[in-house]
Amino acid sequence: MRESIQVGSTTIKPGERAYGYLPVGVLAARTEVRIPFQVVNGASDGPRVCLESTLHGWEPMGAEIIRRAMLRIDPHGLRGAVYCLPLANPLSVEFGGTVESSGMRVNPADVLDLNRVWPGKRVNGWLTEQMAYVLWNEVITQCEYLIDMHDGTGACDELPVAFPHAFPSDSQPAVAGGIADGIGAVGGTEGLTHEKMAEMNRQIREMAIAFGSSVIWWREHPANPAMLSGQAMLNGIVPLVVEAGGAGIIDDTIDQGAECLLNILKHLEMIAGDPVLPKRQIMVENYVVYRSLAGGFYLQEPEIKLGAEVKKGQVLGRVLDPVTSEVMETCTAPINGIIISRRVRMPINPGGYIAHIADTDAVIWERSNR
Ligand SMILES: [Zn+2]
Q: With left for phi above 0 and alpha for psi between -120 and 50, is residue 72 left, alpha or beta?
């Protein structure tokens, strides 16, 4: 017999959908800090999945992708439960959209990055740590799987792409040490065996492929317990970091992203239906983020579309002095690859995102219909 779910003060019975808020605290001028959620409790038993977005603040398109995916879920046809935290970092979403053109990554209340404070603190912690504590204890630890959604920031649009973080399979340590600022606590490392890490990596890899993005960037490195994905891995929760959409715009990447989330639920046999997959999927072990050295106005070459193949040395665009037309920087592709994310805003400061390029000379897995 399937049981009710409790999140904060909200009870969700089997076969029901509910919306609510997790209270965290009250700011100086009595503005309430609360984190909205949606839970769909399926009519029958199955896996429990958390869909979370906006950890980095001004990356709000994940919330729209989750909203669209969840409209297609019938609680009576669902096995297990889906817990949604579409606006996990609400203050950053409220106020983070105006800093540089890519948006603020931190909580403006205490200038901390919500993706560096896990699993949070209930007492003697900054507001961001208290938010993490509430999210971790009320929702995330109820789940066996976690999809951590990001977007291309305020400056860039982005294809859906899976960015799995996995344990190192070589001789590197399993867990990153030396969290410099003292926040983020190691949890659940007892009993972390090679077998458990290999099994976690296998499940992360399967979920990354099932997401159904045309590109998967496989990364193996010591788990950072201050990051949500690292903390989840160390506690036996299978995490998948994904990106989709960006720049606050509605385009094809949003519905594609929603389809990818539904692919995960199909993979876990929570909903019926065949996954919707692209003709070709590749997994790469190298990926380049191109950021500008110069500030100015960025004018992109017209062929630099999402999914475009570029050759090493090909011009992506130019940063111009907006008054004199002087070319401050000619941005060229540093590798042969596929454009996964591209700038869509013209004004740029030094360090602004130009493009993310998946390295097509570093393909480690491939699936093709052809
Ligand atoms: Zn992010």
A: alpha
Domain-by-domain residue ranges, the chain?
5-284, 287-363
287-363 shares the fold of 5-284? no
CA 79 to centroid of ligand 1, rounded, Å:
30
Sequential DSSP letters for 204-251: HHHHHHHH--SEEE-EE--B-TTSHHHHHHHTT-EEEEEE--BTTB-S
Q: Ligand 1 mean position to 153 CA, how many Å? A: 7
The architecture CATH gives domain 5-284: 3-Layer(aba) Sandwich (3.40)
Q: Quick check: 335 and 254 in contact, CB under 8 A?
A: no
Q: Torsion-angle region of residue 122: left (phi > 0), alpha (psi -120 to 50) or beta?
A: alpha
Q: Residue 125 Cα, ligand 1 centroid: separation in angstroms?
A: 23
* The domain made up of 287-363 is a member of CATH 3.90.78.10: no
**Could you list the pLDDT tens digit for every one of the 370 residues in the chain?**
589 999 999 999 999 999 999 999 999 999 999 999 999 999 999 999 999 999 987 899 999 999 999 999 999 999 999 999 999 999 988 887 754 556 677 888 898 999 999 999 999 999 999 999 999 999 999 999 999 999 998 899 999 999 999 999 887 888 886 554 444 445 556 678 889 999 999 999 999 999 999 999 999 999 999 999 999 999 999 999 999 999 989 999 999 999 999 999 999 999 999 999 999 999 999 999 999 999 999 999 999 999 999 999 999 999 999 999 999 999 999 999 999 999 999 999 899 999 999 999 999 999 998 6
ipTM of this predicted structure = 0.97
Ligand 1 mean position, distance from CA 7 (Å)? 25
